[in-house]
């Protein structure tokens, strides 16, 4: 079969490749995948089941059930975000679909999209699928992996059409304060960039409050915000997310969505509505547990003599690798049966780091860190 150049030139996900290795081995502890170890809150699951019992198995409106959009509109006010349910919210099949739609809605062939780096693995390919050219913009460890005005300038982002950011960040766990975001916002306004802000980990912020760049002066009209239920509500398999933005952006995204997806999964929309209405306590409990693990993991790495940045969001630690990150990850997997992701998978700037997911129970986490320590001691 003839395949498109676009498909043929897309490399397999670096994370998946690594995990195929791990799957062939026994007794592996995986700190690899970015997926909660919890199940979705029971009330959300019950709402999904109940919707099926009532025979709610049809499509919903393209934009998503009105009640769900109204609940999202209300929910995001906790981040000082003000988006109306009629025109400014689109319910999507995971935040993944929202990112894809936004890129297709704003990128013309040949446009440049600056991407904060290291970055979640989907953004670069997503930009290419929309016909654009990704431009990685390195963040630096000495700035706690938060993008600065200088980083953007140095990378040539002034000539880009759009900028993709993500706080709390995957893979670094970095969060950005309002002051830090203000620098990025200034650059975006000065160079007329559209900002695509992936805030899927907003609820998993451990120090201070999450701030959205869309709340800063002059930013709402140029920003699309992504969020979803996968991380905060442990609902990865239900595939539900959403986009918030000015009516014209949401309308453009919906015009693509109505031909490609029709509507997000109906059962998941019922679960999500319930999650927003009654599962704050479950989210708070999961956050507390992630936070305990976060402190534990970072302090264990530091005790082992590895430099480990103080991640304050999401569920990843991003320590420095003792030697080449890819080699280290492979050696550790073969020698001790612990799977981590080499930082280079997330872009050039990830080289020399390891992404360690702590969305894993404390017992397994302790054992994994003991094994890493044994591996380092034996060198
Ligand atoms: N953005 C980031 C930063 C992520 O880490 C992930 C999931 N790994 C996604 C988006 C995709 O989320 P969803 O399951 O909602 O498609």
Automatic annotation (TrEMBL):
EC numbers on record: 2.6.1.-
Ranges where the Aminotransferase class I/classII large domain occurs: 27-372
GO molecular function terms listed in the Swiss-Prot or TrEMBL record: pyridoxal phosphate binding; transaminase activity
Subunit structure: Homodimer.
Family label: Belongs to the class-I pyridoxal-phosphate-dependent aminotransferase family.
PANTHER family: ASPARTATE AMINOTRANSFERASE, ASPARTATE AMINOTRANSFERASE-RELATED
Name assigned to this protein: Aminotransferase
Organism: Haloplanus rubicundus
């Amino acid at each position: 079969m003839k395949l498109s150049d676009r498909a043929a030139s897309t490399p397999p996900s670096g994370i998946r490749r690594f995990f195929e290795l791990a799957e062939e081995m026994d007794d592996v502890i995986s700190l690899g995948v970015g997926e909660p170890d919890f199940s979705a809150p029971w009330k959300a699951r019950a709402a999904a089941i109940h919707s099926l019992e009532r025979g709610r198995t049809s499509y919903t409106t393209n934009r998503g059930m009105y009640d769900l959009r109204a609940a999202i509109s209300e929910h995001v006010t906790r981040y000082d975000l003000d988006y109306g349910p009629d025109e400014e919210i689109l319910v999507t099949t995971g935040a993944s679909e929202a990112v894809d739609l936004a890129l297709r809605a704003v990128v013309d062939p040949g446009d440049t999209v600056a991407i904060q780096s290291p970055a979640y693995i989907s953004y670069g390919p997503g930009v290419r699928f929309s016909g654009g050219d990704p431009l990685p913009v390195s963040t630096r460890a000495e700035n706690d992996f938060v993008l600065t005005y200088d980083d953007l300038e140095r990378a040539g982002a002034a000539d880009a059409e759009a900028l993709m950011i993500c706080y709390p960040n995957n893979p670094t766990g970095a969060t950005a304060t309002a002051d830090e975001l203000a620098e990025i916002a200034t650059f975006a306004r000065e160079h007329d960039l559209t900002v695509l802000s992936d805030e899927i980990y907003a609820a998993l912020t451990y120090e201070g409050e999450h701030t959205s760049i869309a709340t800063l002066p002059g930013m709402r009209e140029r920003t699309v915000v992504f969020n979803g239920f996968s991380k905060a509500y442990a609902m990865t398999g239900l595939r539900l997310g959403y986009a918030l933005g000015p009516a014209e952006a949401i309308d453009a995204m919906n015009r693509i969505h109505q031909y490609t997806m029709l509507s997000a999964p109906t059962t998941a929309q019922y679960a999500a509505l319930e999650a927003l209405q009654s599962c704050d306590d479950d989210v708070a409990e999961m956050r507390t547990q992630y936070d305990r693990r976060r402190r534990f993991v970072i302090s264990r790495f530091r005790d082992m003599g590895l430099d480990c940045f103080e991640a304050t969001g999401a569920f990843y630690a991003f320590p420095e690798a003792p030697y080449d990150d890819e080699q280290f990850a492979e050696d550790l997997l073969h020698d001790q049966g612990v799977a981590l992701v080499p930082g280079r998978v997330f872009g050039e700037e990830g080289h020399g780091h390891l992404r360690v997911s702590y969305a894993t129970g404390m017992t397994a986490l302790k054992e994994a860190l003991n094994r890493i320590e044994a591996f380092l001691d034996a060198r």
